[in-house]
Amino acid sequence: MLTLFELQKKFTENLKNQDMEIYSFIQHNKHMSPKKQLAIYQDSILSAMQQALTRIYPVCKKLVGEAFFNYIINHYIIIHPSFSPDLNNYGAGFSEYLKDIETMATLCYLADVANFEWSWHSLYQQITDKKFDFDKLRFYENQAKNIIFKLPRSAILLQSIYPIYHIFLINQKENEDDQSIFLQPNQQYFYIIWRNDLGRQISSLNKVEWIILTWMQDKLSLGEMSEKLMDLNHEINLNIIIPQMICCGFIVDIAINN
Q1: Cα angle for residues 51, 113, 68 (degrees, 5° grid)
Q2: CA quadruple 146, 240, 195, 180: dihedral, nearest 10
Q3: Domain that holds residue 33
Q4: pLDDT digits (tens, 9 = 90+) for 36-78
Q5: What CATH number has the domain bearing residue 228?
Q6: How far apart are CA 8 and CA 81, in angstroms?
Q7: One domain, residues 134 and 253
Q8: Are residues 72 and 158 in the same domain?
């Protein structure tokens, strides 16, 4: 006999595979066949997943139009059904799925916009960090080269060759400005998004700032980052840029690399 979890999983997998065996677990009655009984729940589950994806990806929906968006998400749901009752975590792979759709070539930036929307949505469930402790920094000033700077636990670093944040902004419901999108050749865009006490935050970065923050995520010490900057021939003064990052909220804590 199947456990409840196994039966629930089999039920959900039936959305994709249409396994006839599932009908044997449904009690017959004179009013409705097992197939029709199952269809009621299938429709309910499908609707819940459709609503979740529509809520998370409103800009993608606006860019491709409601009809085509519904077609896309219905196919995505069949291939990637949710096995969790928490649909807040459903749809993480949607941007990768969009990359494989050939008809999306005319909207080359759609997958990157989807990745941005997922990242932006994921901040809702992230915890906030305490404000930076400058006394702690002063305490370790004699070990400056070994200091590791910590980004907010919610921080996500994004990069794209498309202006995804601009695309996101001009496609908000309240926007009444020009919605034209101009793609510049050989351009790169860098962002950090995170959550603090004031809510979700985003800041555009230049390439060097983005590189430094990726090093911090990789737990490189101040000394190691200084050496890497020398190797890159960048005349960046970390003694200036790091306090600026702290003030902007990009850095919330430090530790010592032993």
Answers
A1: 50
A2: -140
A3: 1-125
A4: 656 556 667 788 899 999 999 999 999 999 999 999 999 999 8
A5: 3.90.930
A6: 12
A7: yes
A8: no
Domain count, the chain: 2
The Cα–Cα gap between 78 and 61 comes to 18
pLDDT tens, position by position, 115-135: 999 999 999 989 999 999 999
Question: Are 31 and 121 within one domain?
Answer: yes
| pTM, rounded to two decimals | 0.83
- Compute the distance between CA of residue 72 and CA of residue 50 in angstroms, rounded to an integer: 10
The reply to whether 205 and 86 lie within a common domain is no
The pLDDT, as a whole number, for residue 147 is: 96
| Shared-domain flag, residues 85 and 156 | no
- Is residue 15 very low, low, confident or very high in pLDDT (cuts 50, 70, 90)? low
3-state secondary structure 124-188: HHCCCCCCCCHHHHHHCHHHHHHEEEECCCCCEEEEECCCHHHHHHHCCCCCCCCCCCCCCCCCC
Angle CA(23)–CA(27)–CA(32) in degrees, nearest 5? Answer: 85
Q: Does 237 lie in the same domain as 250?
A: yes
Distance CA 177, CA 54 (A): 23
